[in-house]
Predict the structure.
Amino acid sequence: MANPDSLGSRNVATTTVLFPYGCNDSSCGYCNVTVGNKSYMMMASVDRPGETLLGITPDDYKTLLDRGWRRSGNIIYKPDMRGSCCQEYTIRLKSSTFKANSKQRKATNAWSNFVLGVDYKRDQAQKYPITREEKKRKRLAPFNVVEKIHESEYATLKSKNPLEPAHKFEIVLEENNFTEEKYKLFEQYQKAVHNDEASESGFKRFLCANPFKPRYSVDNKGRKIGPYHQCYYLDGRLIAMAVLDLLPDCVSGVYFMYHPDFSQWSFGKLSAVREIALAEEAGYEYYYMGYYIHSCPKMRYKCEYQPAEVLDPECYDWHPFDDSFRKILDSKPYYSPSLERRLINEGSDTSAALLKSYHINTRQGINSTYDDTIFTTDMSGVAKLEDTKPIIDGTRILVGRKLAVAEMIAGWEDMPVETPGSAKHKIAEAVAALGLELAPKVIICLAIGQ
Ligand SMILES: [Zn+2]
């Protein structure tokens, strides 16, 4: 039996504490089925003043990103890629190796030209002429993403000369607080782009609530860590906003919205280039651009940010996210290179039938109920129930505000781990989903709401 000192009770404030929701089967916004989008969910904070127990450290969240998790507001979730209607692949790119393609360069330049205006360009050419050699050098220079993305910003322009551009364009990285102006923008974006109604509570829950503990910090390299709103102001008006998580060594794009008045400027393209530039400039190694879903045509633009990598959904190593990987997805929606290698090594039977049996075991929610657990559905990329057994007895748990270890639960020893619904099964499920390395560092909260 663990003594209270070994529980690390003094450190609860700085430790990841998660409440396991369990498996969820919901409607899918990508393919519009009413059930079939399956995931395992945990709650990482509650909207209650003074409530600070739940939460995830940015370091632990980064570990989970690299195991295929993401967040929606303060809920963190891991999609069941094999069992879901749509397969959500984690992709990322190294900010320093990104090369803008012609469409991305064009969109960046077109926006700069609009902000500057023809008068500005003419006056600049007259008042601050440059030599022919300089002109040639500029034309031949490679497209510098960081330089180009700042070119239209008011502060950059003013640092060069006193001329006034046609528009005052400013970018402000703000804490992710609610404002009326942000909500109005969200409302208009939802209506025009997604033909959807917005609600203030939905906006707060989805784009302001966050799971981080602490909410804001600075890492040892001086980089900002936490949830931010990157606001785009044109002549003082909020015209677009990115929701970004700044994390240890990466910028993770959560959401982006723009005012429909500006739909001609390819803000979707521009925002990703801007986020890569932010990562590159501030020294975050990677940019995570959200899930890639091959069956969803709206996501195809994500393939254009290269060179990128895709996460293997079984063993979590990274592969080039290139044409050949995507070609495989055309015929095989669930593809794990490591799994295929293992099957070939194990069985010698490499027939399509064998491989196929590992792909998409259910579609569109058939045979699924809310009683499912990650073990009963055989969820992809999580530890087996058997492998969690050496860890679960010592898993730190929080019951109300009391810290304990799992084996202190009354009747623990005789509790059947195989039975869904038992506390033991629930803890094993959380351990398997979080991973055997992260789970011992985390506290599982078994009850909230007292
Ligand atoms: Zn779907």
Residues 28, 30-31, 33, 36-37, 85-86 surround zinc ion (CB under 6 Å). The radius of gyration is 24 Å. The first strand starts at residue 17 and ends at 26.
